[in-house]
Amino acid sequence: MTGSAQTVTLQPSSVTIEDIVAVARHDARIEVSPAVEQGIIAARAVVDRYAAQDIPAYGLTTGLGAGADTRLAADDLVAFQIRVPLARAVGVGEPLPREIVRAMMAVRAAGMAAGGSGVSPRVFKSLIDAINAGFHPVVPTLGSIGAADLAPLAQMASALLGIGTAEFGGKVLPADEALSAAGLLPLELGPKDGHALVVANSLSVAQACLLVHDLKRLFDWSLRAVALDFEAFRANVTALDDRALAVRPAFGQRAVAERLRTILSGSSLFADGAARRLQDPLSYRCVPQVWGALSHAMAEAEEATSIELNSSSDNPVVLASEGLILSHANFDLTAFVLSWERLGQAMAHCAAGTAYRTMKIMSPGMSDLPRFLTPMGQNRTGFATVQKTVSALESDIRHLAAPCSLTPIPVADGVEDQASMAPRVLAKTADIISRLRYLVAIELVASVQAVDLRGVAGELGRGTDATYRFVRQHVAALTEDRAQGPDFMRLANAIDGAVLEVEGGPSPRGGRRT
């Protein structure tokens, strides 16, 4: 897809993560290129030929799963496709947020546009029309094991058939009423169409697209929190010296150190004798290495997501150029999921470092600042109880980072005996990001308070000064004790919706929508 925030044009195998974000969070409309339309028509011709000649093809002339050994009668081909989504609409739990549903629908459209689904042109157009009309099926959160997101996509397809419920115009309605209100007609399925709608990992990939976008923004804010903490702690910047890091150029560490040096550019920390210690605690000294590992993991997860977004994982896949329909297992997400599991563990390491630095900046023995950063004396609490929130958040992240993708129990009479648990992996990654965002916000607030107590606000680098001013726009200095939870939540929301230029002020980028 290419285009503005208002319209994206669907091109074969050229979809970007930002395209999906634009559709999901900014209601961008999707236009379809002639190349995609031609590819859909060519693949459909192969499907029609297989159906007319009664050639065995999984999900077209045979049943699904354990029923793959069951041939379908010619007069049952269409009825079977209607039964496919209805029988797989088995999800339970709270509904997915609107933005994830829109992303899932857009990802499924992108997968069809890759040319291997064999979906009929009218069904493909109906999916695009539903997205553009703002028709959003109500899709329960739970039910997919990540060997194609069958249950969520079946709920989507059922609503497009006029069965179930859907949201339109802010109201949840019976699906047939929502279709009518949106000016849409229920789907008319042909052979293979029901299967084409559900046989993809669209929920997992949709979640991944939104999380890549969110984490990129949070990553830069986390580095800004590090840099501001360096200023307040009076840390030794030799830990960021490229000459030392080049001796062992581990993944990402030199780029992270360069970014930190840019944020700190102009700081008095670079003056001789500015550091209070020859060597700081490891949570300061190891930032390039730990955040470098996170940077590397982010890049891998983004690449894995882009591969899935621009590919046809349909089983079977239609090879229009060769006139073939082939069974395979390209829907398996093991490589994709392992990238995201690794990313969660990398975030857990960064969460630990953030928590440790935040604790140390509050400790007079470590920071040479008033205990718990209160200027009012030790008959005030200051940031003392904040340490409990920090500890709780870090503990949660550590728990969530534990792998959950190992193969679940076999299903489909033992035929489907391996799966990735991709939706759950992505869901727990979202929980990690939300908690890490709070940790970053707390480190920012504590570091700004420490900068004030240290009396070095006039000595900050260009980037840290911009960060300091941004934080102070949202959170006042702590003098007398007050409830600080609202401060942290307000700042967490603010950093989720803004990007700071290194030498300038905030640049709003539109926060997340739920």
Summarize the structure.
This protein is mainly alpha-helical and 514 residues long. The protein has 19 helices and eleven strands. The strands form five sheets. Strands 4-6-7 form a three-stranded antiparallel sheet. Strands 1-2 form a two-stranded parallel ribbon. A two-stranded antiparallel ribbon has the order 3-5.
* Average pLDDT, all residues: 94
Q: Helix share of residues? A: 40-55%
Number of helices: 19
Ends: how far apart?
23 Å
Q: How large is the radius of gyration? A: 26 Å
User: How would the global form be characterised?
Assistant: elongated
Strand content: 5-15%
Strand order of the largest sheet: 4-6-7
Which structural category do the helix and sheet elements fall into?
Answer: mainly alpha
Please outline the major beta sheet. Answer: 3 strands, antiparallel
Low-pLDDT windows of residues: 504-514
| H-E order | EHEHHEHHEEHEEHHHHHHHEEHHHHHHEE
Overall strand count: 11
Give the secondary structure arrangement, pairings included.
Elements: E1 7-10, H1 17-26, E2 29-32, H2 34-53, H3 77-88, E3 92-95, H4 98-113, H5 121-133, E4 136-137, E5 140-142, H6 150-160, E6 165-168, E7 171-174, H7 175-181, H8 193-198, H9 202-233, H10 242-245, H11 253-263, H12 282-285, H13 287-309, E8 317-319, E9 324-326, H14 334-361, H15 364-367, H16 386-400, H17 422-454, H18 462-474, H19 485-496, E10 498-500, E11 506-508
Parallel strand pairs: 1-2
Antiparallel strand pairs: 3-5, 4-6, 6-7, 8-9, 10-11
Helix pairs in contact: 1-4, 1-9, 3-6, 4-5, 4-9, 9-11, 9-13, 9-14, 9-17, 9-18, 11-13, 13-14, 14-16, 14-17, 16-17, 17-19
